[in-house]
Amino acid sequence: MRIPSFFFLKHFTPLFLAVFFYANVNAQSYPPTQKRGFAENIRFGGSVGLGFGNNFFSATLAPSAIYQVNRSMALGAGLNFSYAAEDNFYKSTIFGGSLIGLFSPVPQVQLSAEFEELRVARDFDSDLIADQDYWYPALFLGAGYNTGPVTVGVRYDVLYDSRKSIYANAWAPFFRVYF
User: Fold this and answer.
1) Which of 9, 39, 121, 123 has the fewest beta carbons closer than 10 A?
2) pLDDT 10s digits, 57-89
3) pLDDT tens column, 26-46
């Protein structure tokens, strides 16, 4: 039985909103360590990926930036571009953007919420398979172990649709780096 996406939105969205509200209120009670300008609170990161196989090639470029609001919270945005091709089968171009919120109740734990909207264009070489061109939304809720600029964890797409998603599963591990 498949649980509809709105079930997760209805039940988990209030929980994450409460966590982010708590983080904002609680973080304001920390004494400031030093006055920093806007530019000093921006951190950059992202990912780069290349894949090769038997008649297969894929490449991904996904830069992002976050603004460190306080010790516990960061907000940011990212871009995503992916290209994949398999000889005599298909070519795929995917691009879009994302908005991300990060919250650390303690320095070693990072909770995240990320909304991603991707344009998917798949061009199949066969006339038996229809080409695809559509927008796909994803809302990831995640948790990870933080060690400074690096966070390793797992995230779940509450809007996951197995027929349209570019991801094989709603659960996905992540490796996040911000400098």
Assistant:
1) 39
2) 999 999 999 999 999 999 999 999 999 999 999
3) 443 334 445 678 899 999 998
> Residues near 22 by Cβ (< 8 Å), separated by ≥ 6?
none
Edge-first strand listing for the sheet containing 150-157: 42-53, 56-68, 73-86, 90-103, 109-124, 132-147, 150-157, 171-177
* DSSP H/E element including 19: helix 5-27
Please tell me the chain's helix, strand, coil percentages from 3-state DSSP, rounded to the nearest 5.
15, 55, 30
Compute, in degrees rounded to 10, the torsion defined by CA atoms 63, 69, 73, 78. -20
What distance in Å separates the CA atoms of residue 148 and residue 3, rounded to the nearest whole number? 36
CB 179 within 8 Å of CB 149: yes
- Statement: 5-23+42-177 belongs to CATH 3.10.450: no
pTM of the model: 0.76
- CA-to-CA dists, residue 168 to 67, 74, 142, 171, 173, angstroms: 30, 28, 17, 9, 12
